[in-house]
Amino acid sequence: MLEPVHALADPRYDAVDLHCHSLHSDGALPIATLLERAEHAQLHFFSVTDHDTLQGQAEALAMAEHCNLNYITGVEWSAVWGSYLVHVVGLDFDPEAPASVAAVEQQARSRRRRAQRIASKLEREGYTGVKEWLSTQTNVESIGRPHIAAFLVASGQAKSSAHLFKSVLGAGKVGDVKTEWPDLRDVVSWIRDAGGQAVLAHPHRYKMTRTKRGQMVADFAAYGGQAIEIGVPGVLPEMRQHLVALAQEHALMGSSGSDFHHDEQRWLSLGKVPPLPKDITPVWTRFRTA
User: Fold this and answer.
1) Are 272 and 43 in contact (CB under 8 A)?
2) Residue-number span of the structural domain to which 67 is assigned
3) What angle do CA 49, 184, 249 make, to 5 degrees?
4) What 3-state DSSP class applies to 247?
5) In a domain, 231, yes or no
6) Does the reported pTM lie above 0.85?
7) How far apart are the C-alpha atoms of 45 and 2, rounded to whole Å?
């Protein structure tokens, strides 16, 4: 294990970032660039958590052997809890475990079906070439609405991605195709069965009442979930206190991550996440490299 570098890092932040995205899902940067930035930021623990894919993990692990940081395997699985789409970050798991392999295959099938349905709906709306473009993509399972929007802009069929999300791809629009994601309980089991830590991602973002959020966290803990994200940029103090109380009530650890996607997110930077409260056990204390 590498020697801790917390003392060298900016004291306003924890020297970790356990939630970000690369080109393998909806991020803008390659794995190599993300790891270079993580090392430059003097992070001790770092993870790339792409949506429903493990494609970048082998590259990240290999590169991390030459970096002054501990790379932690990561993923962000899509799941459902009741009528809500939620996300669970998996950390420090075996990407080659049977549970991980089966999870990738199941999520890939769901994403491929969704991409094809979006393409069909858009072509009925008058957009052209979407299905043909999809047929040329080698990783259709990683394609989401932002990638389809980028294709339509590049092909001159729209002026911007923002315009497309307002008109046809955003919530409630024709291209907002729902996917049959697995139940939250099943996703937690995937991560646990692969030896990892299951973390409820950004619980403050879900549009639900405090009572609903409390029930979601309670169910997550009952299913075997181990941590919730608390060290996240932009969480208001009242919400942070609520998350801390929920973590303490259900004996959950805390995790930290920027959810960095690209440099246009000017309100955050890789590795700049607020520290966890001192009375919350960090999830990284349970990592196999810790």
Assistant:
1) no
2) 14-103+189-286
3) 90
4) helix
5) yes
6) yes
7) 10
